[in-house]
Each structure stands twice: as structure tokens, then as C-alpha cells.
Amino acid sequence: MNLTHLEAINFVQKLSYGLDRENYSGTDVSVHPPFTALRSVQTVLDADDIPIALGAQNTYWETSGAFTGEVSPTMLAKLNVRYVIVGHSERRQLFGETDEDVNKKVKAVLSAGMTPIMCIGETIEEREAGETEAKVLSQLQAGLVGVSAEAVASLVVAYEPIWAIGTGRTATADDAQAVCSAIRTAIKADHGADAAAALRVQYGGSVKSSNIAELMAQRDIDGALVGGASLDPTEFAQIVGFDGK
Predict the structure, then answer these.
(1) Backbone angles phi, psi at 82, to 5 degrees
(2) CATH for 5-240?
């Protein structure tokens, strides 16, 4: 919940100026402004031909109806939104979203022709109790109930350890790799080798320019879900265009 629509326009323009397009030509980049800024950011991206995809932070699973305050996947798709974050830890923790809710949102986003970025992750208490893998894989499997292998192959799954979000603490690259590898292994078992190979697995949790290279060097980490650092266009540009990508 940051940036007015005017501030978001300014941010995207600064980000575009800071990106060396040749340096990140092989990297897919999306920005996820608040609902109030989606249309403004879409207009800037299209008018200036900026090769950044538009994403949303959340959605509801119904197409329309008496759901005051909610925004549907259809509404987002009409704004050329390509990616929608579902099941972010803040939605789960602060707003009570369940695995069933996340599953409904994943299916709704897919039905509207967009790509879900499904977030999963454990608390510090679960981590210290040795329950990381069990919790993460439970969320993964519950979120993908009834989703075809073909659809799973098109998804993005973001591992975001809750204890590393906004705290300055980051899972070590080895820790992140271990969980992301477990995610891919579970997808292979449940949905097949092709889906596991095609699925994009991201890491999110205090990602910044100083640790992006180490994280991205890991075999099963395909990208980053950047939080606080993405509010600084200069820092975000450095993350996108780090050496080695």
C-alpha cells in the first residue's frame, strides 16, 4: 500500500530511465502497483513502450457481483494486467486468507488469461520447529488443487519466508535453494516433469542488490519477488540488471 497514482507514474518513468534494456533483455520484469494506480501505470508503460509487464497485488475470485470493495480478475485483465499476486503472506496473516481462498484465486486468475504468482512460506516459529518444508508443501498442494499440469507449468510460485519479509533478515542462498528445490520436486511428483521444469520458482524476502546475485546463482531459483527494495527505482533497477543476468 504505497504510492498514489501520480507517484506511481513517476516511479515507473524513473525505473525505465535506470534500466539498461540490453542488460535485462532476457529477464521478465513486472511492477504491481495498488489498484488505484493500475490504469495510470498501464498508460505509461504502453505510451512509452516500456518492456515491463503490469501486475496486480491481489484479486477476488468472482467475476462480478455484490462484493463491495473487491476487484475481479476480469477487471484486471481489461487493464492488460499479466500477473496477479495471490496468497501473499500479508493477505494470509492480516486478512485471514486461507489455502482454499488462494486456490480459488489461482483458478480465477488463470480463467481470466493471466498468470498467478502464488506465494507460500513459513513463520519463524514453524522454521525453528523444523516444519518449513511441511508447511510450504502443504500450502503448495492446497493452492493447486484442481489445477491442470499444463496450467501449473505456466505458473509462478514465490517462496517467501514470512520471517524474512520487511525484517532485513534473509534466508541464506542455500536455505532458499533447499526450499525451492523441494517445491520443484513436489510439482514433479504431483504434476509431472514437464510442469516442474517449466514452472518459475521465485524467492522473496528482503531481496536487494547486495544479495540478488547469490540468490539467482541457485539452480532452482528462477527469479525474485522484490518487496521493500522495489520502492526505490534505482535499487530495483540494480536488482533487475545485476551482473550475470
Answers:
(1) -105, -30
(2) 3.20.20.70
Q: Is 122 a catalytic residue?
A: no
- Per-residue pLDDT of 78-121, as tens digits, reads 999 999 999 999 999 999 999 999 999 999 999 999 999 999 99
pTM of the model: 0.95
Domain parsing of the chain, residue ranges: 5-240
The string of DSSP letters for the chain reads ----HHHHHHHHHHHHHH--TTTTTTS--EE---GGGHHHHHHHHHHTT---EEEES---SSSSSS-TT---HHHHHTTT--EEEES-HHHHHHH---HHHHHHHHHHHHHTT-EEEEEE---HHHHHTT-HHHHHHHHHHHHTTT--HHHHHT-EEEE--GGGSSSS----HHHHHHHHHHHHHHHHHHH-HHHHHH-EEEE-SS--TTTHHHHHTSTT--EE---GGGGSHHHHHHHHT-TT-
Over the stretch 35-91, which tens digit does the pLDDT of each residue have? 999 999 999 999 999 999 999 999 999 999 999 999 999 999 999 999 999 999 999
Task: Decide if 62 is catalytic.
Answer: no
Which among 32, 88, 122, 191 is annotated as catalytic?
88
Q: Name the active-site residue from 90, 97, 160, 191.
A: 160
